[in-house]
Amino acid sequence: MTSLAFTSTVSLRFRPFSSARKPRIASVTPRVATRSPLKSCLTSNDSISNYSVSGDEILSTTRNPALRPISKRVPSVIVSASSAASPSVPAAPPPGAALKPLIASIATGVILWFVPAPSGVSRNAWQLLSIFLATIIGIITQPLPLGAVALLGLGASVLTKTLTFAAAFSAFGDPIPWLIALAFFFARGFIKTGLGNRIAYQFVSLFGNSSLGLGYSLVFSEALLAPAIPSVSARAGGIFLPLVKSLCVACGSNTGDGTEDRLGSWLMLTCFQTSVISSSMFLTAMAANPLAANLTATTINMSIGWMDWAKAAIVPGIVSLIIVPLLLYIVYPPTVKSSPDAPKLAREKLQKMGPMSKNEIIMAGTLILTVGLWIFGSALNVDAVTAAILGLSVLLITGVVTWKECLAESVAWDTLTWFAALIAMAGYLNKYGLISWFSQTVVKFVGGLGLSWQLSFGILVLLYFYSHYFFASGAAHIGAMFTAFLSVATALGTPPYLGALVLSFVSNLMGGITHYGIGSAPVFYGAGYVSLAKWWGYGFLISIVNLAIWLGVGGAWWKVIGLW
Q: What distance in Å separates the CA atoms of residue 64 and residue 35, rounded to the nearest whole number?
């Protein structure tokens, strides 16, 4: 019983010691504080698949002799810890919806519903807009879980005859939400087998002197894969989410226990924000990029080649990849920052783990197979979601992951629900003509200002960028607005090829402003390390930084290479 209680105490990162008697705290705290944060998290997490370890394991791996006498004092510490911990546990929220956020969401929809539709907007489009905005308000304020809010929005659209049932639920047949859900199932196997643990320790052994070093190693690894894997959802969910989660857990940063800020919050947000940058750097880095190139050819009769795209994007892209992680590190820092001893300790952990187990080998082989199909799938006529289903099938057949475990991944199913709902509603806003009306209105407004082409184009870019709050897909946004904005930019004097490239680049960068704007967003947000308010707040901050870099540094670079 004593051992069990001590295990629970350790899994709380020793926070209960704050409630012990003051003389004991004074004798232990100074020596504990000398331990390096990353070293501490590595010594207290032998296994990612099992988040708590026994007290004996902790004591055997702890090198600081200051902690050894603790075992003699376990009974007294446990009594004070349990008595102190119980009042700190927050009361469970009452069942049902939070009334104030629910009322705010419904009121938004009802008010807009009864506002007369502008000239040129159909009644159906205006009603769907009111439901869509009410759903977005609900997703922001969260009177219910996100999936439940989205389901209410779909229900309202069907109940009011704004959408048919088939139209409302049409996006559940879209491959992107399913690819995101499958990514969570892969992450389960990655962590369960211990492969994530092994790779995480490899990363720590190479780059673990600092959290910033770990972050940059992941950022540039993802950027190197971007040209080869034309699905940001696949890169983020199938490769980097499992790895990032493994690193977070290995360093004692879990969701729901107050340790998110040790490493996970910063690392998740950093990897997400840089995924939209890497997607903008290469023609083949995001599935919708070829659509932008195709629309460029049909609008201005100029083609964007792979090298043309990469040449124009490489300088602002690299600058963004360097600055964004550092900026987030300053404004949203992890509490675990540096540990000179972490690489050595990680190598010891790897040696202790021994050779790869059978399930690790199966998981690694499946990952290689899936990534290979993502890279060469176009030649084999195998799309990204089919490759992911094939990989999951291997894991299920071999028993590495069970279907019961997949069903237990509630975040995956919740994400599938709300993301598909938003895709459906945003798609029908376009089909009902609302987006076309908005584009034409913007074009007339900017064209009538009589500004220079530089200022006019800057306004167009801002309007194009921040209108992405109304889209759950980069492809949908490009399809709805790219041609209109490129046409008016050209008419106002913007060099056509420059205008096409800039709109193509920002068609990726704008995905960072919400948790639904690009395929990698639901993946990293769904991990649960960052609150929705912070996700949107830092997303807006980084959007300003990215625009400044791409229009400032990028503008100078494009001048050098002769684009204007």
A: 8
